[in-house]
Amino acid sequence: MQSRLLALAVIAIAAAAPPAAAALPQIHAHRGGTVTKGTATYGEESLAAYKHAARNGFVLEVDAKLTEDGVPVAIHDATLDRTTNCTGEVRMFTLTELAGCQTDVLGSPGSPLPTRPAGAYPAPIITIEKLLGFARRTGSVVNLEIKNVPTDPDYDTTSAYANKVMDAVIASRIPRRQLIIQSFIPANLEVARQRVPGVATSLLSLQSLNEIFLQSAADAHYTFISPEWPVTPDYVQRAHGLGLDVAPFTLNAAADVRAARQADVDAVITDDPLMAGRALGLRAPRFFDASVFIQGRRLVAVVHLKAPRGVSARQGCRGKLLMRIMFPSRTRVRLASGRLNRNCEARFSTKRTPPRLGPPLVTVLFRGNAHLLPRLAGPKRAGLVPPMFNP
Question: Does residue 199 fall inside a structural domain?
Answer without folding.
Answer: yes
